[in-house]
Specification:
The chain has 149 residues and is of the alpha/beta class.
Length: 149
């Protein structure tokens, strides 16, 4: 036996129904669509997503509560009061040190330092974002803020 001898099993291949090829074929005239009505017409039937006159889901969704913006960027908030209690004078505050201190959980989280609380230690803060009030308090305590460009 060779490749050119292979054939599908008897009855495994069935010829497609050729509609609209004259009455002698058995599928002429109405071409299997029946007589009259919306579905017998070309382009007939309701469009995709039609719900019987009810407002379609795609049109209702933006009106419903809980719409979320897919492009929103979430930051893990860290207050100055937490930095004051967890870090010593002269420390560098970055993602790795925040994880070590147990303030944030994951390495890939974006961090924003907020100005809630007071700070007396000179800290070098290297995070993704710092609020204006936090930056002013850190610099007033003698520390510095280094943001990524």
């Amino acid at each position: 036996m060779q490749l050119n001898d292979l054939r599908p099993a008897e009855g495994a291949k069935k010829a497609r129904k050729r509609i609209g090829r004259g009455n002698a074929s058995g599928h002429g005239t109405t071409a299997g669509r029946g007589t009259k009505g919306q579905l017998s017409r070309s382009g007939g039937g309701k469009g995709a997503g039609f719900e019987g006159g009810q407002q379609p889901l795609a049109m209702r969704l933006p009106k419903l509560p809980g719409f979320t913006n897919r492009n929103r960027v979430e930051y893990a908030p860290v207050n100055l009061s937490r930095l004051e209690e967890k870090f010593a004078d002269g420390d560098t505050v970055d993602t790795a040190s925040l994880i070590a201190a147990g303030i944030i959980k994951r390495e890939y989280e974006l961090v924003k330092v907020l100005g809630n609380g007071e700070i007396t230690k000179k800290l070098t803060v290297k995070v993704d974002k710092v609020s204006a009030s936090a930056k002013a308090k850190i610099e007033a305590a003698g520390g510095k803020v280094e943001l990524p460009c």
